[in-house]
Amino acid sequence: MSSASTSQPIVPKTDYIEEKEDGEAYRKIDADICREMLPNLPKEKGWIAEQLVQYKGVWLTPTFALKAAVQLQHHFNLFQTTGSSTSAARGSLPMYFLATLPKSGTTWLRALMFATLNRSLYDATSPHHPLLTTGPHDCFPCLEMDNMLGNHDHSRPVTSLDHDHHDDRDGGDAMIDSYVPPTSTAQLFATHLPYSLFPKSVTTSSSTCGVSKFVYVCRNPKDVFISLWKFGSKVKAVNTGLTPFSLEEAFDLFCRGVCPYGPYWDHVLGFWKASLEMPGQVLFLKYEDLRKEPFANVKRLAEFLGQPFSEEEESKGVVQQIIKLCSFENLSSLEINKTSRTQQYFVKANILVENSDFFRKGQVGDWKNFFTDDMAKRMDQIIDERFSGSGLTFVNP
Ligand code: PAP
User: Does domain 27-81+93-152+181-387 have CATH number 3.40.50.300?
Assistant: First the structure.
């Protein structure tokens, strides 16, 4: 018998109704705070949008990530102190965050988490598995970009987890047809926000927000940099009409810590240290390990999320089936990921990103095709300086 205990799919809960007046008031306060802060924040050129601003040491896109960071702190703190009946209801649901610096494996882990947690409902070999017709970015929301937060009309505060299923935008039909109904078993979010920007009410397990767990995926900085530069080059040109960074300019920014949600090393170290201090709350995975040993790592993931694979599942090959379903080769060949543009949050924010933009090569070590010797030396030096003594090492750095 399956050890996956859910009888409902694990997708965002939809019936949380934020008190309307309060929600609007908070949004207005947050928008005002951002507007007031903005002129005084350090600024640099953006990789995807026009600009990045530095807030509490983190480089964020002002149009959504900055607002999200402010909202996240205010709303979760608010819920910690009010203890209202709605917050109590929310508090009883575990929150699982998939946390990554962009281009570290978000798409892959979204698919793996979704398929693993919902395996009692959806057999990974089924021709009707939702992942065959739903892009990984639509399986569960992005904390800072989805419609409860930071979208272009700022219509949702962070604690309202409404996921809009009724959308008539391009490419949305396949997703809507296959969209899975809500559950009350867990709340899943993807996020790029660093650990330091999460309020204590989320990171402390005894908080009134209930159980929060983070699955963090780290990828070696050289491959993250190339992946980000390639993605940014395309998306920035399409969306802003601005000339994308040259390789040299992008590299210099990255080495100075200027990249979305960066500096890279602060992001990684924040979650690394948290995983050492609270291994039951933060699982630290490496993209390269997942590539090399997917079986062992998917098992770790399932255990961490409280749904270990049973012996029977293992003997039936369920782990391998999930790995195959979520593989780069399989996902990138699906029609939904080849030809559609369905990520709810990007579509709503009017940012054009094709699903295929999330699938490039999926290789370890592609940086070698782009880096000069000098670039490799500079990055190695930074890795030495920033990570020495931390206990964290990089595969194929
Ligand atoms: P995001 O943070 O913007 O969502 P993310 O998914 O983290 O992006 O990164 C995309 C990278 O993951 C791409 O790497 P590349 O540019 O070096 O090729 C993409 O190819 C890779 N990727 C996407 N899906 C998978 C997968 N199923 N398995 C392995 N790698 C994948």
Answer: yes
pLDDT tens per residue across span 362-385: 999 999 999 999 999 999 999 999
Q: Which atom of ligand 1 is nearest to the CA of 223?
A: 17
- The SS3 of residue 201 is helix
Report the alpha-carbon distance of residue 324 to residue 267 in Å, rounded: 30
SS3 assignment, position 15: coil
Token pair belonging to 75: 């709303």
164-202 confidence digits (pLDDT tens): 333 333 333 333 233 333 444 677 889 999 999 988 877
Q: Indicate the helix (H) or strand (E) that contains 34.
A: helix 20-37
Q: Is the CB of 220 under 6 A from ligand 1?
A: no
CA distance 157 to 161: 8
Burial of 240 (0-12, 13-18, 19+ CB in 10 A): middle
Ligand 1 atom at minimal distance to the Cα of residue 111: 27
Q: Which residue among 98, 359, 367, 368 has the greatest number of ligand 1 atoms within 8 angstroms of its CB, and so is best to mutate?
A: 359
Which ligand 1 atom sits nearest the alpha carbon of residue 227?
Answer: 16
Known active-site residue 192? yes
Ligand 1 binding pocket mutation candidate from 47, 98, 103, 216 (most atoms within 8 A of CB)? 103
DSSP state of 134: S
**pLDDT exceeds cutoff 60 at 277:** yes
